[in-house]
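Submission checklist for the structure archive. All mandatory fields must be present; incomplete records are returned to the submitter.

[x] Identifier: MFS transporter
[x] Organism: Cupriavidus necator
[x] Residue count: 154
[x] Sequence attached
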Amino acid sequence: MKNGLSYTLEQGDQGEGLKVHVGTRELTGFDPKVLLAALIDSGYPRQTELGQINRPRMYALLAILMLWGALAYGPMSALYVELFPARIRYTSINIPYNIGAAIFGGLAPFIATAISIKTGNVYAGLWYPIIVGGIAVVVAMFFMRETKDVDVSL
């Protein structure tokens, strides 16, 4: 039992692939129809029941996510203006930002999924962005310089 999902994975005999146990059924290989039937037999719904969605809560959570995004990206332009002189500002911001977004942001779904699969805990993948964000805060605290009374118009 892994977070309410009753399944286990076993390595099959050579050339056989993985064996998946869903409830009391054993599946070998990957056949979507057989897997869907096993999930339905175990009590998992085939489709989302739209009547059970709590729309106000869903919209409130989306609004909170948008607010957090605005709080993160809003002050960034002012910070960049203070950190870098005008003649190098574009390069100083663009290259590290895009590399960071590609590596940490682009690979985040893959890494979070891999962590969740490895641990068997669907929430374990959330530790990746938490740890990366924590490291970013620590690095910023110790290595970002103070720009008060510094001329950045060079």
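[x] Structure attached
Curator remark: The radius of gyration is 24 Å. The longest strand covers residues 7-11.
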